[in-house]
């Protein structure tokens, strides 16, 4: 039942090479949180629905509860800890703060990771597009309205159109 | 409002202090706390809704490498006492439960044994190897089945499954029926919900065998009441237990009670002498944590020809599930107590029955009285429909006016400083009822079905001790705070609340800052640790602002008065008249003008702590203040919700086209945080009314055990929520605060349902059961004929 033996793997996380020894069945979310002490990635369901565990794998948002750590060798993983370079908020983090777009904050990292990637790809989204992409992340606290407003505002800032 | 111009800190749109850490991924939630050597727990849970436990064989599980032990109800019974709920309330049966079931399980998901292992993965493997021999019993999975003669007993110690039954009558409802122009009846069925906070339950127990002291890390809304229970059930003194709450990923009422799993974890840490932790998975959270709301209300109302209500009768039944972590009358009773809400009704009677069933136990979920406003305003709409009157007019005729205040409800509850007519008129004007009716008529011609729903909410926010007493619910409503100015002038403050995401740190800092005379940025709140915080009743209902903020405000005022007495002495004045503290500097009133002095709070703090001989005679050293406060029996805020929907009869699809709330919640500590609570509550109410549903089959099997089945609304389904702020202060509370946070749910359920029924009106059908899913609306409409557009095609 305990499965095959633990294995040493090397992962590339937030631009650093990190070695860890994990069982093959260890989830990426657990490996990030427990072995690499990157606890900003949250786990809300462990079955791929809530989106709280979203990280970037090779720049694309993915649910870290649906991947095994051992599958991640050779891939570049980015977590919430990498978003604020030098402790400075990204425009998206700043907009989320300005729009009161978080309450308990448990969903927030997953939302930030999803939209760091999305806004890089779609710099000028419509509200419907934002809501559509956001529907992959559950938030039990806010009703989404301020999150949508924050994302649209961050997109404007990132396009160089100022706050508004 | 006239008062708020006097405030400099209260009412500021101060950004949330919590945001920085949460946005950076540096929040500290339970699972982020690492204790070396901690063991992991996994519970073995019942696959059947009702069964005798014949035997438990854990040999194979114990043999698994990494497993420390497997513990059963009999083991836990040696280390813990039973929970007994035996308040002396008429019609409420006393109940008790052990840490884990010993003889039988009462719902699918009931914990039967507890595996402890070095790793969570191994603990889960081992739990699957535990073999429990069950003898199946017949299950009761509905209120009706529970009360059938000869129904199997959920709790063998009770005479029947009717665990609570209470009645009440004021005035003479029978006489009102006799003189009525018409008698209107209506039904309201609210389905089973669960809280589903994004962070599930969990805890980390750390027994210090040397000091014989337990440190219990747990996200809890009510740290001190939890400590009291935990200590008592472990047979420890309250001085041997420290409860520490880290950041919490949502709670909504699910993180108040001491649950059995948590008690087991604490007992096992003590037994094994090692830290033990538990993280609930989502399946457990949806099936075994706590459920809520499943109830049916029927009303019968006697009315005059003009729609005036003469008398009202309520029959309420609640399906409570298998276990009582709260007295079984707790939620239903409040609904019955405050039902009449914004309306002038003197003759009122209720009958409230609560039954045990083989389902997960109920608890308070954000707006335990969620159904109330739907029942009352839905009844109003039923009156309007029957008498052919305008629903807005029927509301106007019955709504309490300023001249009626203070208004004593038939249950004895007193409304003061509420403005239901004002919020009604504001909502009616903002949604443009005549304009809507024109669009609705035009739409119907084209086969488009629009509906408009209104719902006025009188939200019970802060429960004072006197309310609990009057309602026959055990509990205290007091709150406690301390404010300390440290020798450097730094300001610390604490209160018995613990936030679970609301964003307490800024608004509560503002309450302290206002009372003391500093800026809110300079105040640091210390919450969640029972060794640091004073004994308060925690966060529940809408009490955070009035009980928590109010107590802190009063305590900070006491601190300012003391500081100014010291300032007067230092300035060689007779007394503190004409002195105040502003932004941590003493100011003096000279010729009608406030002038800064050279004295700062830091100067006075240094004197108070480090130069006590310089203090005036009789003044003790230090700047350390505490205060407790019991709010009025109840504070109420009020709101009117307006919702416009479009229904597609062929598919049952519902779209919310517009949603607005006109709200009066008194003095607002921080408008950012209040708006977040208003929008969040409405969204949670809509999500529950439209999508969420805990489903059990007839055998008591839970069919909604993933977030794919228990559906929480996503961003594509939630509307923009417009808020009209109509705040007027309360004259009875510190700073005029009224509180809020749950009324959004009450109003959303009612406004949405009233809107749907307005849209359904041409078909002659009434939706009286939630959730208003496309399937349910389709079922209602199948074969129904619209007066305008012909028959809806049968599927
Ligand atoms: S934890 Fe991965 S999607 Fe919910
Ligand atoms: S802020 Fe709590 S779940 Fe989104």
Automatic annotation (TrEMBL), chain A:
Alphabetic keyword roster: 2Fe-2S, Iron, Iron-sulfur, Metal-binding, Oxidoreductase
Source species taxonomy: Bacteria, Pseudomonadati, Pseudomonadota, Alphaproteobacteria, Rhodobacterales
Name under which the protein is recorded: (2Fe-2S)-binding protein
Record-annotated 2Fe-2S ferredoxin-type domain positions: 7-83
Alphabetized CDD domains for the sequence: fer2 (cd00207)
Keyword Iron-sulfur appears in the UniProt entry: yes
InterPro entries linked: 2Fe-2S-bd, 2Fe-2S-bd_dom_sf, 2Fe-2S_ferredoxin-like_sf, 2Fe-2S_ferredoxin-type, 2Fe2S_fd_BS, Beta-grasp_dom_sf, Diverse_Oxidoreductases
Molecular functions per Gene Ontology: 2 iron, 2 sulfur cluster binding; metal ion binding; oxidoreductase activity
Pfam family, one: Fer2
UniProtKB/TrEMBL annotation, chain B:
Keyword Ubl conjugation set for record: no
Name the UniProt record assigns to this protein: Molybdopterin-dependent oxidoreductase
Annotated ranges, domain Aldehyde oxidase/xanthine dehydrogenase a/b hammerhead: 24-138
Keyword field: Molybdenum, Oxidoreductase
GO molecular function, one term: oxidoreductase activity
Coiled coil ranges: none
Organism of derivation: Thetidibacter halocola
InterPro entries named among the record's database cross-references: Ald_Oxase/Xan_DH_a/b, Ald_Oxase/Xan_DH_a/b_sf, Ald_Oxase/xanthine_DH-like, AldOxase/xan_DH_MoCoBD1, AldOxase/xan_DH_MoCoBD2, AldOxase/xan_DH_Mopterin-bd_sf
Gene3D superfamilies linked to this entry: Aldehyde oxidase/xanthine dehydrogenase, a/b hammerhead, Aldehyde oxidase/xanthine dehydrogenase, molybdopterin binding domain
Source organism, top-level taxon: Bacteria
